[in-house]
Amino acid sequence: MNDTLGKWHHSPGVDSRLKCVVGNFRVAIPVMNEDIKAYNDAQVPSDSSICNELARFIDKELREAESKIWHRHPVWFLEGNPIVGYSKQKPGIRLMFWSGADFDESRLNVVGKKFKDASIFFNDVKEIDAKALRSWLKKAREIQWDYKGLIKRKGKLERLK
Fold first, then answer.
1. Residue 74 forms beta bridges with which residues?
2. 79-112 tens-digit pLDDT
3. Are residues 21 and 9 in contact, defined by beta-carbon separation less than 8 angstroms?
4. Topology given in CATH for the domain delimited by 33-142
5. Which one of 62, 80, 90, 106 is most buried, counting C-beta atoms within 10 A?
6. Domain residue extents for the chain
7. With b meaning 16 or more CB within 10 Å and e meaning fewer, what string describes 88-113?
């Protein structure tokens, strides 16, 4: 590594980040969770490309989120609350927002029947619209239902934000 860029440090924790010290600045660079990388790599090449692009994009946009495999699928959490995740299903790679039904987004048209989730399916990495995805992730941060406390409240959802 070029000494002018500074030293790289690996952050501990479930959702690790590489940190680079450049002059007086510390820069956090998202690093894909190893379990999520393994999940993505286990997919057929076309689906793996979609999964890797989604993971990189979500990591970049939701830097404060914890990411992990949850119920066998990649999921990102804010303060312990599931926000967004994806899974391989027959129609393609399903990108699901746990509170997406309240985003008022016509492209998130696969709406859950019991909860407040909404999804979109991808079959090619070229179908991922960065502008739309950035907007949905912003809404995911701002509009949240409390899935973390769902069991404690016996299946009753309450709005957090």
1. 69
2. 899 999 999 999 999 999 999 999 999 999 888 7
3. yes
4. Aspartate Aminotransferase, domain 1 (3.90.1150)
5. 62
6. 1-31, 33-142
7. beeebbbbbbbbbbebebeebebeee
